[in-house]
């Protein structure tokens, strides 16, 4: 079952979610995930069962079944003993949808449970990925929802991840109520990137790639051409395209366009600039081009995105 199939109307049985805390109960990763979910549980009553357990308790439990199971740990946390970790992972993967948050993403990938799956690994752990299979697709995003697999880089992104899960599973009304209780205006989406992830992952091994992305991020309002970027980093256009395709799965022009559109979306939600101003600030001289490109990436127009902000307010 994919995560998309869990949110079905008229659910007769309560949705059961398991959180396994393998880290510090006071950490931002844990509190950012658990607090929104606990608020949702209070609002939903018997419709949502949230089980919070330790790794040791989960390893010996044999009677419970969960719709969603997440193993959670800070990025500094050392993994449990191998036998205990394997037992916990075996129990978690028995859920309809499962995954990890923070350092637990590295643990489940290292145990061979992420082959061919997009995972959001904390950027600080990129240096510890020797044991991860080459088929694992590490992305620089805040979190990933890939079929039945759920991963989040942890830290402050845990809040965005939890709120996204809540809105998807229980609807926008519950999602809005939890955001209001937490005084949160905007939830960052899965397509937003960890700010240091690319530099951490490619800075030493692929400095030209990192330099090219930095140039793109610094030139949103007046975009550079692919040839300009290639010349500035000392590569041919073909070499630059090969790097982007190999490590980011995209052509430079497409990656650059998505950066500009993500910035536009942020401005639409967080500022009062007009839609025309936002388009110009993100390098779009044509309003129709801006609207078409925005709709192709996000599924709605800039005007609809701005209306969503006004409706939430």
TrEMBL record:
InterPro entries: AraC_XylS_family_regulators, Class_I_gatase-like, Homeodomain-like_sf, HTH_AraC, HTH_AraC-typ_CS. Pfam families: HTH_18. It comes from the Bacteria. The keyword Transcription regulation applies. Residues 210-308 form the HTH araC/xylS-type domain. GO terms for molecular function: DNA-binding transcription factor activity; sequence-specific DNA binding. Keywords: DNA-binding, Transcription, Transcription regulation. PANTHER family: HTH-TYPE TRANSCRIPTIONAL ACTIVATOR RHAS-RELATED (PTHR46796). This is Helix-turn-helix domain-containing protein. The lineage of its organism: Bacteria, Pseudomonadati, Pseudomonadota, Betaproteobacteria, Burkholderiales.
């Amino acid at each position: 079952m994919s995560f998309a199939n869990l949110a079905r109307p008229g659910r007769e049985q309560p949705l059961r979610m398991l959180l396994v805390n393998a880290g510090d109960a006071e950490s931002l990763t844990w509190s950012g995930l658990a607090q929104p979910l606990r608020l949702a549980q209070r609002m939903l009553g018997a419709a949502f069962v949230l089980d919070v357990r330790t790794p040791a308790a989960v390893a010996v439990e044999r009677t419970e079944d969960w719709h969603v199971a997440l193993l959670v740990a800070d990025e500094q946390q050392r993994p449990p003993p191998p036998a205990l970790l394997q037992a916990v992972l075996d129990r978690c993967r028995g859920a309809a949808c499962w995954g990890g948050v923070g350092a637990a993403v590295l643990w489940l990938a290292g145990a061979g449970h992420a082959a061919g799956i997009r995972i959001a690994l904390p950027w600080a752990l990129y240096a510890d990925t020797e044991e991860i299979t080459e088929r694992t697709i590490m992305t620089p995003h805040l979190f990933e929802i890939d079929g039945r697999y759920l991963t989040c880089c942890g830290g402050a992104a845990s809040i965005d991840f939890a709120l996204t899960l809540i809105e998807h599973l229980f609807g926008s009304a519950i999602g809005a109520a939890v955001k209001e209780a937490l005084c949160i205006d905007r939830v960052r989406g899965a397509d937003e990137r960890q700010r240091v992830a690319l530099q951490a992952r490619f800075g030493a091994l692929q400095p030209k790639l990192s330099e090219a992305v930095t140039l793109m991020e610094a030139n949103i309002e007046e975009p550079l051409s692919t040839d300009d970027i290639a010349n500035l980093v000392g590569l041919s256009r073909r070499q630059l395209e090969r790097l982007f395709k190999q490590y980011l799965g995209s052509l430079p022009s497409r990656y650059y366009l998505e950066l500009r559109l993500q910035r536009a979306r942020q401005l639409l939600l967080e500022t009062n600039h007009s839609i025309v101003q936002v388009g110009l600030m993100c390098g779009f001289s044509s309003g129709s081009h801006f609207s078409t490109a925005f709709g192709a990436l996000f599924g709605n127009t800039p005007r609809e995105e701005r209306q969503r902000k006004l409706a939430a307010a």
